[in-house]
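Slide 14.
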Amino acid sequence: MRLDGKVAIVSGGGTGIGAATARRFAAEGANVVVTGRRPEPIEAVATEIGGRAVAGDTADDAHVGAAVAAAREAFGGLDVVVASAGLGFFGAVGDLDDQGWRRTLDVNVTGAFRLVRAALPSLTERAGGSIVLVSSTAALVSGTENAAYVTSKTAMMGLVRSLAVDYGPLGIRANALCPGWVVTTLGDSSVEDLVEKRGITREDAYRLVTKHTPLRRPATAEEIASCCLFLASDESSIVTGTALIADGGGMAVDVNGLAWTEPP
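Slide 15: predicted structure.
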């Protein structure tokens, strides 16, 4: 098992990518602390995998401290941190209010920062460890009316590079994972506008948003969890300060050439 005896914290672990990652880590031998804002789903996941649930907001210093303390008290230390908690308020810069902007950055960037900062002393005690920040292909390209989310996910890439440079000499690795479209509750809400405007099913909407990606489909949460596993495990022991793009090949497509493939 690839994480046998390891201890991990997974934020945003009640649903979607976070829940799939917590389950995959446990199946690979890890003891997992699952965090999230809603107690019920994280407790359900933690009970299922024999882990621990710590409810709270990742942007809250007291909460992330409690999560690290739970890992140490229940399992004796900490080896892996996956910052998967995330949200986004839609809007172009001219339409976005301060509250939506601030909340998106607080959870996606400051939340990841605070969780990692709280975890670093424990990771250092183990003389190593792996940090995985779940960013997005939105860190590399921008859709419309998505200013806060795009900015927050881009900032996570800078945080990863800084962590890799500063803590690599202590044996700590830090990487970003950049999924494209993933079938999750967040993905469902993102395509809902297409469902309503075009009168199509959710499955049709996912097909539409991925029609130009080479694999022609969105990812499952379990596929992204496998990518998290790779970055968390010793299989990626020389990989740090970079991003793994998991988008079905979307970033490989030259958008300028799509005019030659579209019907007249």
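Speaker note: Residues 126 and 167 are 13 Å apart (CA to CA).
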